[in-house]
Specification:
By secondary structure, this protein is of the alpha/beta class. The chain contains 14 helices and 19 strands.
């Protein structure tokens, strides 16, 4: 019996998918990367917003219709449980977000010809399968490394704490060991992820332990870059800021989703109400050449035109180096779902478009400052006509810009090369490898 996996959602889900494949490989099951060649297909789903759910459901139905035995993993079964089985009765199994270690039980159940099996903890408590070798779906210069799972915050728009449970950190030594294994496979950039990386260690060490983790990872030979994603504003402590500034392998890049700027909206979102200008100024003052990325939500229930303008002016003033804006998505089971004043799709889209047009101008200006400078960049690959595709330390994979450079010599993916920047556009840089 051959098993394939289709993955949807975020980088955290990608790591779970690779762990599921690792668990199956460890228990002797045959894995294929081609779902047409498989008897069983696991669909690892996302349920963060409605569009993500729709995409996951389409994959499930497609696999069912092509005659596969389908197991649904991830956030969708955790959120909808019995409703999902009622809607798609042909399913062979479901596992919850904290049950990935149980995947062999469901495969065994299918092999025995038994009926549907669902293994979903009502209150998920995730434990990273530390003894499992991840089977990497994507192998390249960079790799994600999950340092924790779950979330202790209760943001008004977010369903994740209900689907993923309380925050659980992994021990420092286990993370370092996994990082070393990835580096041995040729990975040169480690990207630290969790629902909130900056709260790492609070449960395990009774204090924020991300600075200590960075210290240990910084010692790994042949590792070039360490990148931190998804930090929480109130957890950007002086110690953490100092570690980012001081440690040579930690890229000068801070990803800190702020979601909004207006105090009333932040309060309604159950987010920290603070002056984010001060925080960004502090990051820029203490970390030389730092690139600050944020994510913002427009069209939150009750957001007035004045409150949106507050956000627009905030972005105009702060000039984030990188920014993503999202239309508020209504999710059942969240605090914001029951709020009054839900806005139309048209208003939400118009506000997002306006904000992103502003950011495009800011990003264009921001990129122009690199012209004439030399930037260390990691080699990602080549275009069809031989131009080298790279990425600077100021850009995370898949969400930020790229650097396109010409060279006469052979360069290897994963290597760090110095690129002299000669041109720029809204999001990308162009230059020559030195």
């Amino acid at each position: 019996m051959k098993i394939a996996l289709i993955n949807h959602g975020c980088a955290k889900n990608l790591v779970d998918a690779e762990l599921i494949l690792g668990i199956l490989a460890q228990s002797g099951h045959a894995i294929t990367l081609d779902e047409t060649d498989a008897n069983v297909v696991i669909v690892n789903t996302c349920s963060f917003i409605h569009d993500a759910e729709k995409e996951s459901v389409q994959s499930i139905i497609q696999m069912v219709e092509s005659g596969k035995k389908v197991i649904v993993a991830g956030c969708l079964p955790q959120k909808h449980k019995q409703d999902l089985k009622d809607a798609i009765p042909e399913l062979s199994g479901m596992i919850g977000t904290a049950n990935i270690n149980d995947i062999p039980k469901i495969i065994d159940n299918i092999e025995k010809g038994e009926e549907f099996l669902s293994l979903i903890d009502e209150k998920p408590e995730y434990h990273y399968p530390e003894n499992v070798e991840r089977q990497q779906i994507t192998v390249g210069a960079s790799s994600y490394l999950k340092i924790g799972e779950g979330c202790n915050y209760q943001c008004g728009y977010c369903i994740i704490p209900k689907l993923r449970g309380k925050y659980v950190s992994r021990p420092i030594e286990n993370i370092v060991q996994e990082a070393k294994k990835l580096v041995d496979k040729g990975v040169r950039e480690i990207i630290l992820i969790a629902q909130d990386t900056s709260s790492y260690g609070l449960d395990l060490y009774r204090k924020q332990a991300l600075p200590q983790l960075l210290e240990e990872l910084n010692k790994i030979e042949d590792l070039s870059w360490i990148r931190i994603m998804y930090a929480y504003p109130t957890m950007m402590t002086d110690e953490l800021i100092d570690a980012i500034a001081r440690l040579d392998k930690v890229v000068k890049y801070v990803d800190i989703p702020l979601q909004h700027s207006h105090p009333r909206v932040l309060e309604s979102m159950k987010r920290p109400v603070m002056d984010y200008r001060e925080l960004v100024n502090k990051l820029r003052a203490k970390i030389p050449h730092v690139s600050v990325r944020t994510s913002l939500i427009v069209g939150y229930p009750g957001e007035t035109e004045e409150e949106f303008e507050h956000l627009y002016n905030f972005v105009k003033e702060v000039k984030f180096d990188r920014m993503g804006a999202f239309e508020y998505s209504r999710e059942k089971g969240t605090y914001s779902d029951k709020l009054k004043g839900h806005l139309t799709q048209k208003i939400k889209k118009a506000r997002r478009d306006k904000l992103m047009q502003l950011q495009q101008k800011i990003s264009t200006e921001c990129n122009q400052k690199y012209i004439g400078t030399v930037l260390p960049c990691i080699v990602e690959g080549y275009t069809d006509d031989g131009v080298v595709i790279l990425r600077s330390e100021h850009d995370a994979p898949e969400i930020d810009g790229l650097v396109y450079a010409r060279t006469d010599r052979q360069v290897v993916p994963g290597d760090i090369e110095n690129v002299k920047i000669t041109e720029s556009d809204e999001y990308d840089l162009f230059g020559e490898i030195q």
